[in-house]
Amino acid sequence: MWLYNRVNSLGKEEIIMVKVGIIGSTGYAGQELVRLLLGHGDVSIEWYGSRSYIDKKYSDVYGNMFQIVDQRCMDDNMEELADKVDVIFTATPQGLAASLVNENILSKTKLVDLSADFRIKDVATYEAWYNIEHKAPEFIKEAVYGLCEINREAIKGARIIANPGCYTTCSILSLYPLVKERLIDVDSIIVDAKSGTSGAGRGAKVANLYCEVNESIKAYGVTTHRHTPEIEEQLGYAYDGTPLTINFTPHLVPMNRGILITAYAGLTKECSYEDIKAVYDKYYENETFVRVLDKGVCPETRWVEGSNYVDVNFVIDPRTNRVVVMGAMDNLVKGAAGQAVQNMNLIMGLDETKGLMMPPLFP
Q1: Cα torsion at 47, 53, 56, 57 (round to 10°)?
Q2: CA separation (Å) from 26 to 22, 53, 96, 350?
Q3: Contact 290, 173 (CB under 8 A)
Q4: Which of 44, 146, 202, 216 has the most C-beta neighbours closer than 10 Å?
Q5: pLDDT-derived band of residue 199, with 50, 70 and 90 as boundaries?
């Protein structure tokens, strides 16, 4: 059911709401989806899915939803859900969305998948990095990578949206203009990334306990992090269609939210600040959610927290003939739920920014 205005039998204009369901609504990204969609204005949440809390009141799982959400959690019956809604969000672990989706479901509804199941086009690459068998390879080719600022037109007509990962969104958007314009040596790209602990999900893990992460910072997934092939593939499309090879190292920092990436690459020619700034403006000047900061201002996670904005900037190092590119965003909003809402807006013909124009939180 598409949202649109119509005149009813009494001659009054009325709005048809977009109906959505969320499978995995009790994870961090799922809860953020609920928060954003409740404030959207043109959306009705019909299904709060959760394997762990079936029949439990949603507000008992998340106390911030007390007297706001009265519904109880339901299962992950996507067949039944497809008959009830226009869009299904799957905020689930890798493998689940692929195991549930089929042609019958996609003939009735749209799917915005927040997992990695449809992001990587090569099945063998997906299975090697995620160490699981892909259950629906027949849908990978048609799935559209949901990075709105780059794939906007393709997203509008898609049935399956592969919502990008958090590290990947920040890394790709920060580097994309320079790769696209061939201003950097793509073989020299190094991405140093840092994330708050919510990026690891809500599941209980010893490594994420307060005493394990407080007053500490650590690298993890060194040379093996699963977002690496996603970044390589998407930046490869910007270059010449061939996946690149980069160094990507994530770090866990003791904060709730936020992604900060610092990327390094050799320049292919001598560039001034004005040269590179003009390239960023070419791609992002009219983009609402990508903010290219003023000269000398470095992105900070505190200035994007709770928002769908990505702040980017760069510094040229003439001594090494390198450019240092920086990006900051909220991993649960632009890195997950906010981007999913942005994708939903596009596929349902709504204003792309609808429900996402909240300013960042501070302090």
Answers
A1: -60
A2: 9, 8, 15, 26
A3: yes
A4: 146
A5: confident
The domain limits of the chain are 5-142, 167-330
Residue 166 among the catalytic residues: yes
pLDDT of 135-144, one tens digit each?
999 999 999 9
Token pair, residue 146, equals 């949901």
Q: Does pLDDT of 275 surpass 60?
A: yes
Q: Which of 361, 329, 363, 297 is nearest to 193 (CA)?
A: 329
| Tens-digit pLDDT profile for residues 94-129 | 999 999 999 999 999 999 999 999 999 999 999 999
pLDDT at 208 over 90: no
- Residue 1: which pLDDT band, with cuts at 50, 70 and 90? very low
Cα–Cα dist 51/48, whole Å = 10
CATH architecture designation of domain 5-142:
3-Layer(aba) Sandwich (3.40)
Among the listed residues 73, 148, 166, 271, the single catalytic one is: 166
First to last CA, the chain: 39
Q: What is the pLDDT of residue 14?
A: 57
CATH class for domain 167-330?
Answer: alpha beta
329 touches 169 (CB < 8 A): yes
Q: pLDDT value at position 4?
A: 46
Q: Which of 197, 202, 195 is nearest to 227 (CA)?
A: 195
